Amino acid sequence: MANKRLFYVLLVTVLALFLVVAAVSAQGRGGQYGTSIRVLGQPYVAPTGPKANVAQPAKHVMPPNNAAKMAIAQPAAAGPFVYRLHETYEGAWPTGDWYTYDNNGPTGGDVCWDDDNWIAFQGMWSGWAAGGCADGLDATSDYYVDDMDSWAVIGPFSTEHAKSGWVQFKWWNDSEEDYDYFYWCASVDNSNFYCKSFTGDSEGWRNGRLNLRGMPYYGNMLGEEQVWVAFIFTSDYSNTDDGAFIDQVRVVVRK
Ligand SMILES: [Ca+2]
Ligand SMILES: [Ca+2]
Ligand SMILES: [Ca+2]
Ligand SMILES: [Ca+2]
């Protein structure tokens, strides 16, 4: 009888320890990855239902820098490349095959991506989801705003006769977990974008990647006349933070 009681006490203790370890590791994971499909012109609809309002910490202000913008020429696609792009944000942006827009009209103001010098993976500048369009903000002093649906798009470019196609970039995100999302996506019709996503705090710079041969929900985007790549940031009706930054964006499509 005593042995049986001891067994149950041990069992409960082990289960409790397991739960504590699971909770701690879940907390330290830093945000959540996912996949989804976004449609051009179809505004993002945030999850509804009650949620607690979180007290926002003060913006962490970096020392100002006066990095001048240089004109950086895009390398032309030549040799083994069908298409090649390398964006550092150290030059004027958006230029070339890039364009930016606000996908939900007047909702949440007119806000889209722009270059900003608050943080960068390399150099002084990166792309920030809330810096551009008529109501663009300054990452040095501002958080992103509510009700955003901000897009930065590359394209169209061809993947015809390509053996491989990759999008690689560095990203940094701090957004309200489960409500405000950063997406990286590709499309063959400039309408349906197939995406990977992240919500929460990345706790620093991470590597982003899309293999155009194996896109979520879609599969192979090689052999297409036109392909678009999009970086999207969406927010719901409350609670904001620093948002999404991207740097060293590369698109490499090889013959
Ligand atoms: Ca700009
Ligand atoms: Ca808007
Ligand atoms: Ca940079
Ligand atoms: Ca939010």
Would you write up a description of this structure?
With 255 residues, the chain is mostly beta strands. The protein has one domain: Jelly Rolls. The protein is built from one helix and twelve strands; from the N terminus they run αββββββββββββ. The chain has a six-stranded antiparallel beta sheet, with no helix packed on it. Strands 2, 4, 5, 7, 10 and 12 form a six-stranded antiparallel beta sheet that branches. The longest helix is centred in the N-terminal third of the chain and has 26 residues. The protein is globular. The site of one calcium ion has 9 residues, from loops.
Write the layout of secondary structure elements.
Blueprint: H1 2-27, E1 32-39, E2 81-87, E3 98-102, E4 112-116, E5 126-132, E6 149-157, E7 164-174, E8 181-187, E9 192-199, E10 206-211, E11 227-234, E12 243-254
Bound molecules: calcium ion (4 copies).
One calcium ion is lined by residues 93, 114-115.
Q: Could you say how many structural domains there are in total?
A: 1
Could you give the count of β-strands?
12
Strand content: 35-45%
Task: Count helical runs.
Answer: 1
Cα shape: globular
Kindly report the spatial arrangement of strands forming the biggest sheet: 1-9-8-11-6-3
Low-pLDDT segments, ≥5 res = none
Largest β-sheet summary: 6 strands, antiparallel
CATH topology name: Jelly Rolls
CATH architecture: Sandwich
What is the succession of H and E elements? HEEEEEEEEEEEE
Rg from C-alpha positions? 21 Å
Helix share bin: 10-25%
Main attributes of the structure:
Jelly Rolls; 12 strands; binds calcium ion; mainly beta; six-stranded antiparallel beta sheet; globular; 255 residues; 1 helix
